[in-house]
Every structure is written in C-alpha cells, then in structure tokens.
Amino acid sequence: MSLFFPILKSNEIYKGSTVVHNFPPNDVQKVVEKSRYLNLIWMDVNCWKTKLITKIRPLESKEVFYDLIKPKASHNDLLIMCITDEPLPPIMASLPKHTLPTTTPLWRSTVCIYRNNSSASYQGEIVPFPENGTLLSFIPFMQKTINTNNYLIFLNLESKPNSRKGSLKFSTVNKPEIIIKDAEINSNSCNFIDLNSLNIDNDELLVCYTKSMSGIPLFLSFSDEDSPMSLEHTHPPASFVIHGNKNNLQKIIKENWFNLLS
Amino acid sequence: MITNRILKALKNPEKIVPYIRNRYAPIVAVNPMDRKCTFSDLFIWRCGNEWKTMYDLFPYIRLLNKKEVLSTIETCKCRLVILSNNGNFLKETEIKFEPTKKNLLNLADYIPSSMSSNQYGTFMIFHENIPRKEILGGGYLTERGYASYGFGGSSTLSYVHGNLDAVSGKFCSRGIEELTFFKSTFFKRSFQLQYLFTPGNSYEIAITNPTSKSHKISINFFNNQGEKFKTIEKKLSNLGVIIVQLPSCESNFIISITSNLPLARPLIFKSRNQKFLDVFHG
To answer: What is the pTM of this model?
Structure first.
C-alpha cells in the first residue's frame, strides 16, 4: 500500500522528528525480513523530489530529525518518508503507489516532538488524501488551565505535487453557527495553528472543519511549568460506529454538520 | 462464488492464514444479537499515588442526529462501569449530561473510596442506544473516546484515544447486560511495538484483556541486533489490566507481546526523572 511517515516541522516551540521501523506490527501477516530503503520526499515545483536517507536493516529503527534532514533547496514545510524495496527515482510526478505491505494494524512510525526537557509522540502514518476530500473533526483536547498552551497541527498529503490554499474553521457543538476562528491552510503541508486565543468553556466541544481538503488534525498542549505534554489526533466521525456502513455514515454526519456550520 | 473465492485464495496463498485467523478471532468484540447494544473500549484508570485520570464523554446524540431530533431529547445517558485490575466489578454509575456539551469525568469521583492508593483498573462506558437506525446503518455506537492522565501537581494532561471495540453490552435501567467480548486466538499472536525504547526514559506498559478468559502474556525484549535478551511473563485476568514497569537498559531496545489476545496493543506511560511526560498507544 501507499504509506508515508510525516516529520513534523520544527519551529520556535518544538523540534520535530520521526522514528521509522523496519519490522511489521505483528506476526500474522508474513512480511519478509530484509533490508529496505528509507527515502525522504518533499514537494518541489510540480514534482516530488526524493533522497535516499539510508538503507535500513531488518528490525532496525531510525530516528530522523526535521532540522537535520530538511533539504536546503526546499521551500515547502512538509517532509515525509517512506520505506521501499527498491530505490526511488530522484524526481516523481506523483507519490509511489506501493511502499510497504498492508498489515493490521497499519505499519506505523513514531512521530515525535521535543520541547525543553520533555517530549511527546504518537504512533502515526499518512496515506495520501483525495483532492476533493473534506474534514469534520470533534476535538476534546483544549486545556484551559492557566499557562497551558494549545496548538493544532494540520497535516495534509495529496498524491499530486500541488499546493492549494484553504480555510480551516473552528466552532463549537453548542453554537455551530458561530465561527470562533478561521485559519488559512495549505494542501501538501504541515500547518501550525495557534489556538490560545480561543475563549471557550471547559465543557465546550470544539469542531474544526474544512470543505476544501482532508487531513490529520493533531492537537498539542503543554505548559512551561509542567513536564507532561499532549500530542494526539482525533478520529473521523465514522469511527463512532462499528459494523455499519462507515462511508454512508461519514457522508450523513458531514452533510448534517456542514448544514449547521457556516 | 465459492469457486471464485478458492481461485482467488490460491493466487494469494500468503493471505489465507491471516484471513482465517482474522475470521476466527477478529479485532473486535463478538457481534451482539441485540440492536440496543453499544460497544466500549476497555479503558485504563489510574488513581491515587499522584495519578489522575480524566475522560471526555462525547454527546453522541448531538453529533449523530439532526438538530430537529434534539428538541425531543433532554439528556445524554450512559453507564460507567468500573473494574479492578483483576477485572472484578467495583461500581456502576448512570451518568446524565447535556446533549450539546462534552462531559469531563474525573474517574476518582466514581472509584470506591475503599480502593487504596496506587491502584489502577479498567472502565467501560455504554450509551443508551439513541441514534436513529438509518444513521447506524446496521452498526452499533462505540465508545472509543479520549482519556487523559496527569501526575503530581501538573495541570497539563496527556491525552490518548481509545483503541479497541473491546466489549459490547446492553444499556438497561438496572445495569449493563448481555456482554460480548473479544474471542481468544487459537494460536499465539505476537504484537510487535513499532516503538524504540531509549535509555534515560522510564516506561510502563499497560495491557488490557478484553476476552472472557484469563491469559498468560510474554513481554519479549530485543536489542538493536534483533537478539532477544529478556522475557517477562505475566498473568492477565478477564477484563483486567496489568501495568508493567519496563527495566532500564543501557541501550535502545524494542519489545513484542506474545499471547492469545487478538491485539495486545498496550498503552505506554513515559517518564523521565520521576516526572510523567506522555502517554500513547503502542
């Protein structure tokens, strides 16, 4: 399948890195134990550029830091990696269709951030989203205690090497018709959004949505006075139901909410 | 039809065994017979000894139904079932909350005061089956939401999402009935954590058992050459949880968990210098 591992863009708040692993998550699907190629991919003008990072041994894990690996010539802020059986060409018109075998659960990397003496991570991967995708996400993660900072990292990856602008809007379940924040986002990008100005009550459930692209919303919370950090993603609304027709459910929920939201 | 399936299987022999294993013991609780059932993950609570566990309860009735339906519904209703680390029943509480807001539960408020400090266990949440049939589309509402953990005096909590459709049950006014569980696997399975444990950090892993039987689990440690250098064996009760402090090592290591659980995917609690940093799924 077409599976990629994002490296979160470092900024003045944190440093990003990702640990990739050359072994599957289980022994149910028999995956050949062998060395594979670890590739870096970034977007350039109308193409994807690639660079071989290293050949990775069976059972080996490799941590790659955003600041150390970012190509100087790159102007885009999304860096992704993939593990392949064969080396990738240096320039591609679209992302490779086959990288790693399909496993249950999916083959994951450890997506990390470091800040001061603390760190947080989630087990993640990214699969290219369709260009006509949309996003509706219910977010419980806002922490309103004194000194706690809240940010959203919105990751989008599409197969074609284009960058489109869009708008990520925030509202609440209680008053969906009122937009409390509107942030500009780009496709094929690691968008970083400051949510500290949001003034909502502790029991309000945040909704974020966009009709122009899909993506992974990651929520980051930390305080300079605490050691714990929180880095977690939401699940799509269809995950509220098991065994049903998830595609149909997702469509119904989105239609309903896009009518309620501005 | 059957001939086509056999031909397809013969063309992809490597997929036959995973298919049979997944059909026999899928990574979801057994399908309940009653449409009024809902599913829940088997979440982990830690309280006392400075641990704090919170849970963000979603108003699914609001999220899944149209606005006009809401006017007929005044409250969301669910039952919180608290179990000990051995899977023994401790307490069940009916919770009502507003359908337009989330409800932040502090698990300490629901755990019997007889539990001494430094305790941990599991909890499940079953909702009254309220969404319309046409929305559920033959499926069931499942609670796989977001728990958060804090330690000591820190005000920042670290969130982790639910992972499994672990148990199904029927909401009744007198309690939860007709539970269904994960099936145990016939052959042992190994879950290989795609996570590199590093020296300097301290790790605890928490493994739950959503099956109806007790199981022995083996935690296997491998060095960066792929050589196994340690195994820890533990017994895990039905609906229970164990939290295992991983030994400190001088170099990086990875672990696998072998058991008859369909998916022994743990939570990992990471600390450094006795300070809690992060919790996440393996």
So the answer is: 0.94
